[in-house]
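User: structure tokens for this one?
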Amino acid sequence: MRRIGVRTRALMVVALAVPALVLVACSSSPDGGGSVTVTPASAGPRPASPAVVTIVEPKNGATVPAQGATLQVKLTGATLTSVTSQDISPTEGHLHVSVDDQLISMTSGLKETLPDLAPGRHTLQVEFVASDHLPFDPRVITRGFFEVS
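Assistant:
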């Protein structure tokens, strides 16, 4: 029987642990509060994607109402999918949407209603990620800001 070296054994543990960590990291909190934490982890090099993501609404610097503000995104060069998989494609994935550095949704849609927000300036980030919830390299990401009246 062939012996497995320490380094090979460590790589096998990482290869088995990463999918489980990604699923835990991208799941909702048990209290039902909807808070979500994504912890990027990677066991190897990430593919590049030809995708380009653009925030259509709210426009950068726009003023929006505290309730019912709409986020609309444009994605070119790739397709949104709701399927989660370790078999990644540079042209398939979904969006991670963050407001003020807090992940608010993981979506396969281009339009959604933002959560109720306090008055003031807020940052918005939308990232196209692979179907394993991890970023491409380089990241396909856009940021902007808006004011809530």
